Amino acid sequence: MPTIERIDGWRVVVYPNDHRPAHVHVIGAGCEAVFELDCPHGPPRLRESWGFSLKDINRVEKFLRKAVKSLCIAWEQIHGNL
């Protein structure tokens, strides 16, 4: 699973054998969240979360909003056309 970005101690990953729609997994410290990217312009939307506090989810979401274009490019490089 390629790590696309890092947010504090968490990794933003795209699984090569994953399904559409374009999304990322944010993983670390016993937590995981899945955000749909709504490519190509976003905004990312939280789909699922395990173990993250609301404060942390908000921080991750803010980061992903700023990085959505590069995340969509990474998804397309791994999975092909959106």
Indicate the topology.
Elements: E1 3-7, E2 10-13, E3 23-28, E4 31-36, E5 45-50, H1 54-79
What would you say this structure looks like, in words?
This protein has one helix spanning 54-79, and strands at residues 3-7, 10-13, 23-28, 31-36, 45-50. The chain is α+β, with helices and mostly antiparallel strands and 82 residues long. A hairpin with a 2-residue loop joins strand 3 (23-28) and strand 4 (31-36). It is globular, with a radius of gyration of 11 Å. 23% of the residues are buried.
Q: Summary?
A:
With 82 residues, the chain is of the alpha+beta class. The protein is built from one helix and five strands; from the N terminus they run βββββα.
In this structure, how is the largest beta sheet organized?
5 strands, antiparallel
Instruction: Compute the CA-based radius of gyration.
Output: 11 Å
Average residue-wise pLDDT: 94
Strand order of the largest sheet: 1-2-3-4-5
Q: What's the tally of helices?
A: 1
